[in-house]
Specification:
This protein has 366 residues and is an alpha/beta fold. 34% of the residues lie in helices and 13% in strands.
């Protein structure tokens, strides 16, 4: 109880001393599908790294091993630990009681992405089927504002994302795998990977990066899938390699952004995941209600409106459904949803948002 009170007092104490000038004009959102907080904060897991069943050739990823967990995580994710940890914020290290969780009860992809972008938990979203999401989401809310119309885009390796974001309904530009038939049967949380074998993350990234350079959108969502695909297959070395590749891709995006007048010091980057994975030596391959720990996720953010607090070590609990309002708030918008259960934005992820008041009257979900 004392720790929770101290956490609240810490967040409140930060707010008055932070400049209230709003600088974010653009937003990049990136997801690493099914990437665990354990590797994010601790680096390679020794119980899997030295397990012949999951890592038959550890020499392929020898650069990711070190007895010191801080050095392991830095070797695996150098951008996050050398840049974001110094200039932004990292949430979800449960070793310090800092928790980020899925509020939905299913703990797999469609419900996770839906919660993330709608800000609500819809228990009817209980499969990974290609069905149109009945819930409005924050990307379409942003797209409906005059200054963002035609300037919101989504790129994904997994081709169910357009259904989650209902892009055929709202007109958001979307780019994903084309032409692959999808099984119409309900996909369980333990077998969802069978229909996620589409194009590689490198192709998704290249398409998104080219679009960013040529079209210069205000909001870009990039969804990467390699970490989930390789973990379902039990390939721990490839799971680590794809996490490292994702870190490199995100670094390339951010470094380019900081060289462009349109984006430099005007862009916030928010990175997270749709679900966690099992905590056990064997259950790490899967996720869902029967894999304990699958609801445990993480978030990272860096940008001109985010205080450089680094790795968050305060005892606090945040939820995936808070992502939607937080994303809109970075752009000076107050996201609204028909559900009264929409998640509130996350403090102290950004500076005090007095500028939201000015946008209340003009920003409303249609």
């Amino acid at each position: 109880m004392k720790k929770n009170i101290l956490s609240i007092l810490f967040a409140l104490a930060m707010m008055p001393v932070i400049s209230q000038t709003h600088q974010t004009e653009n937003l990049l959102i990136v997801t690493l599908d099914g990437f665990r907080w354990q590797e994010f904060f601790n680096g390679a897991d020794s119980s899997l790294f030295f397990n012949q069943r999951y890592t038959p050739d550890a020499s392929r990823v020898s650069e990711f091993w070190n007895a010191d967990s801080d050095q392991r995580r830095e070797a695996l994710l150098p951008f996050f630990w050398n840049v974001v940890a110094q200039q932004g914020q990292l949430y979800g290290n449960r070793n310090y009681g800092n928790k980020v969780s899925c509020a939905n009860p299913y703990w797999f992809s469609y419900p996770g992405y839906s919660e993330m972008f709608t800000g609500v938990v819809d228990r009817h979203m209980a499969s990974n089927r290609k069905v149109m999401n009945p819930n409005s989401n924050v990307l379409e809310f942003i797209h409906q504002q005059n200054e963002f119309e035609g300037k919101v885009a989504a790129f994904s390796t997994w081709d169910v994302i357009p259904y989650v974001l209902r892009t055929s309904y709202n007109g958001i530009h979307v780019n994903t795998m084309k032409g692959k038939a999808f099984n119409d049967s309900i996909i369980s949380e333990d077998t969802s990977q069978t229909d996620k074998d589409e194009r590689c993350d490198e192709s998704t990234f290249t398409a998104a990066f080219d679009f960013l350079k040529q079209q210069q959108p205000r909001v870009l969502f990039l969804s990467l899938d390699g970490t989930d695909e390789h973990s379902h297959a039990g390939r721990y070395a490839d799971y680590l390699i794809y996490a490292h590749k994702a870190d490199q891709m995100i670094s390339e995006l951010w470094n380019w952004v900081q060289t462009q007048e349109r984006y430099k010091d005007k862009t916030t980057l928010l990175v997270t995941t749709d679900h966690g994975r099992g905590k056990g030596r064997n259950s790490w391959k899967t996720h869902g209600r029967w894999a304990a720990g699958s609801n445990q996720i993480w978030m990272a953010v860096i940008g001109p409106d985010t205080p450089a607090l680094g790795e968050m070590k305060t005892n606090a609990h945040y939820f995936q459904k808070q992502t939607a309002k937080t994303a809109a708030a970075f752009l000076g918008l107050e996201y609204t949803h028909s559900s009264s259960a929409v998640g509130e934005m996350i403090y102290p992820m950004m500076m005090k948002q007095d500028h939201l008041t000015a946008n209340k009257e003009t920003a409303s979900a249609k």
